[in-house]
Amino acid sequence: MEWTGARYADGPTAEVHIRVAAPPAVVWQVVTDVESMAEMSSELQSVRWTDPAAEPGVGVTFIGASRHPAMGEWSTTSHVVEWNPPTSFAWAVEDVDSPSATWRFTLDPDGDETVLTQWVQMGPGRSGLSAAIDAMPDKEQKIVFVRMREFETNMTATLDQIKDRAERLAQDAAGATTTPEARP
Question: Domains (ranges, CATH) in the chain?
Fold first, then answer.
């Protein structure tokens, strides 16, 4: 993996891809439903838009509450930094200019399907991981490696759930446009 041996200051990244049997517009509905993301994650516990009446887009914020066995519970404010329906959605955690992490979904059409990518970059701003690194600077590379591996595992599980939801939505939409007589 690219991030093996990386230090926090290196801005390590992880990326996971999945093919979804649904068009980008349908997948977009799922990846931008941030409030449902907690249902797909073992770490993320809840998400809510800061201003539910605001139209989603660049500059809008949401608050996420998370829990990790080694790091406890915490909440963060994320700032939407990229909103390009239906191709990309990204957010910076905490400080837009020096985020603790930046996350992105990219949706690439491929025929009637979508190649969905989830990407994360750690840092450059401080995060919950920073305290562990401060306490054990000689283990920084191992701490970063383990956290990036956790990100990759959790992202894979999230993409699997997004795929399932988007494919069900696409099937439901296809069924709704088919007359009962034309259905097999």
Answer: 8-177 (3.30.530.20)
